[in-house]
Amino acid sequence: MTKLREPLTYQHTLTVIAARIGWDRCGAICGVNERTVRYWSDPDCETEIRLIDAERLDRAFLDHGGDHAPFHRLHALRLDIAGRAASDVDLARAAGSAAKEAGEAVSAMIEATAHSASPAKRREARREAQEAIAALTDGIAALDAAERKEAKA
Q1: Please, which residues have CB within 8 angstroms of residue 30's CB and are 6 or more apart in sequence?
Q2: How far apart are the C-alpha atoms of 20 and 26, rounded to whole Å?
Q3: How crowded is residue 110: how many other Cβ atoms within 10 Å of its Cβ?
């Protein structure tokens, strides 16, 4: 049975990279054996990936056709989420806001794909996408706050 790795964790991110480049290659890049890399991806193990190895694996992921640096993206998102005050946010309200902003972003992006789209339309699409990302990030922060609240109860 495959072990569950929660989204937005270093363990999950490592499995994404290993799926693209292979566990053995991950180990070779980091100067450790494959078993060590698998331990890093195990949420029940106390050993974790080092920052320098996360950077090396991000570069390897990009070199092997990846479209982003997974650990970099995860780290930035986790810091963003941690900085948001979401202690009393209603999850339904956060979901509604995310849906609204995402819909507006998709609509603006579709409009920007037209051959005659102006720079102003592309700028609007970027702004709408940024607002959607912010709303979704607020939603994740609200989920985390709800989980902390349940843990206290």
Answers
A1: 36, 37, 49, 50, 53, 56, 57
A2: 10
A3: 11
Specify the 3-state DSSP secondary structure of 114.
Answer: coil
Locate 123 and state its tokens. Answer: 């700028």
Diameter of the chain measured on Cα atoms: 56
Q: How far is it, in rounded angstroms, from Cα 133 to Cα 76? A: 13
pLDDT band at 24 (very low <50, low <70, confident <90, very high): very high
The amino acid at residue 27 is: G
CA distance 73 to 107: 25
> Which is higher by pLDDT, 54 or 115?
54
Give the pTM.
Answer: 0.83
Rg (alpha carbons) of the chain, rounded to whole number:
19
SS3 99: helix
